[in-house]
Give the backbone structure.
Amino acid sequence: MKSRRPALDLRLAPLALGTWAGAWLVLSAPRTIALAAFLMASLLAALSHARRRGRHRDSERSVLAVFIAVGLGLGILTSGVHVATRGTIIAEAAKRGTDNLVVSIEAIARTDPVAITGPEWAGDRRRFIADATRVCLKGQCHASREVVTILGPTSGISAGSRITASGRLRAARPGEESAALLSASKLAESSPPRGLGALTARIRTDFRAVADELSPQGAGLVPGISIGDRSRLPASLDDAMKAASLTHLTAVSGAHVAVILATVLLLTAALPRWAGIAAGAATLIGMFLLVGPMPSIKRATVMGLVVLLARLRGRAPTGLPALSVAVIAVVSIWPHSARSYGFALSVTATAGLMLLTPIMTRVLARFFSQQLARALAVPLAAQLACTPIIALMISEVQTYGIFANLIATPAFIPALLTAMPAALLAPVFPRAASVLAHVSSGLTWWLARVAQFFAELPVARYGLPEGIGGVAIAIGGCLVVLGTVIAADRWLSTRPRKRQASRRRMRAALAIAMAAVICGVVTYRWASGGVREWDMWQCDVGQGSAFLIRAGPTSALLVDAGSPGAGVERCLSQAGISNLPIVFLSHPHSDHVGGLHDVLVGVDVGQIIIGPSRHPSANTEQTSQLAASADIDITDAVREGRYLTGSSGQATWQIWGPTRAVADSWDHDAGANDLSLVVYAESGGIRALILGDLELEGQAELYRRLSAVCSVPRCPEIDVLVMAHHGSGRQLPELAHQLAAPVVVISVGADNDYGHPTASAIELYEASGGTIFRTDRDGALTFHATPDGVAVTRRGGS
């Protein structure tokens, strides 16, 4: 008689999904829609119950409808109460958008400050989230419970600090937990963290000091895998981790909690049950306090406590009910988790492991050993579960994620188990902590090498269409894989005699496939000289400028479009770009905006951002007409006196100039060059600054703002600098020495009538430590990050 497989316990799943959906509706949709959804679900539950006639199937449907309706009601109620009790003083003040309104707040920092870049990076400006307790504006003070994101100089501030801040507000995006963003001109710690907050702050601070002794990868990864501190992770390694689908290793998640909890329970196995469970509960709460309220930690902590409670009562813990309870609890306590990608990834990955790992292990075990089958099944199940959400987030999938996780996992567990004790010992035994941290650093070296290896393979990131189309493709692909696995499971289970032969054939096929892959990788790396796909691309458009910043596999940001017919469309085709989320037009001269028509014909454009200059007016009008005909929005980069910042896929960008004051005071006709947008961008670990056609006055204005906060060269740190005005002789020595960029690009046409680039400009930037690359001789240039810096590839001069 065949043993029946245990049935899945899905009783609480509808309640959890309903709660999640209810909270999401309140936070993301108009309140009338949320109310209508609840009423419809309630009506459905009532009708299903009324039509029940005692049949089991009807009874199950009735219970399902009731659970969904109850979940929706719970989610709507808890999130509604949460929103209503927070208050709206800060949010309403931010929505009014009055720049001259200075707001003062008292708050408690919820997270550690994180470094930011851009014009607000001035000195030690960082970003953190705080819970406001008091707000003062227009001479009146009010109690508040709103959440605020604060930008400012945060020396000495950590999670749990009580702070006072004053500055100007910006409205937050609809549905975000933060009521507003406060750009603080004054920010101070009124009192340090207290109680357990003081202890966790001391651990994090002292552990950072220990980690500073490590290599760059160790200083970034050791605190990352143990306490979720990614502040020191090198940008190039961070990008490689994303490409290899290994970022979950540094965003402390359920895997970290499971490993630590299992270790604690193993060490306390000889103690009474209650003592082991108490130790486990203390561990979960301690990790939550130490790491901070990240979505994955919230889910893992609640789920771990549910499992421990089941063990205390002598019951075997079951995964899906525990996960359902965790979802209900987290969404009810922290309703904004319903809109968090991190929470969604944590839940779906956990559900995927529970639902898909057993069947995938059974299928793979017919061809491999049980241990190898399970090792393959775990990352495959997690990848399948998370792929649709990743596609929605960044419109791409990581091609080699399954294999990267398979190879990295053996080093991850011991690295975590040495890094966590190092963190706990750092305040009391720093030498012992240093020894453990160095051991962990040696193990994380393997994680870094795995990430960099897979990130450098061809098609490490496979692009998908943005929006619902890409999500549909991802879901369809996952369903095909899942259907194949289920069909294989059923087919092989009915043919036991063929199992051994199938296993031999599969092993032979696997050996051949692995040999083919290795040969292909070696050939690719040899033929390409180890150069991976580009992160940034300086197009060769003659006497003009067009610069690409990669945002995704087939998308990029474009800074300027060159002259008409100068070849920007050819550059986009060679780069494999079909979508430009943003086109920046620094100023309206034809060698920077004339190629816009060619761009719009060849690719999809999401938005155009322009500088303040409108001279010559004919070019400005033509730009407006082209954008209108293509139904593309145009945004003024210095509107309302604020710098724009943003991100798209893997690219982040900032506008560093000109300021609104400069734009209002300068002669737009005579000073169009000096009103060029100054664009700072990061992608793939490379930091680039594009200066447009700034003349001496514009460069001097930028230098004044930089020198006000920088007392040493290379502040800010720039990897690639596009020299101002095609290498004209009007270059400011002070700015060149301040930036001291190692790679300096001149976008210039061969045999031009302007004498660009001038010998003086080249000598100036070479004296500042830069290596000069110029498109008239080198052709288009591509840039990508390596552990040793920026690698530049010349593509032949025009």
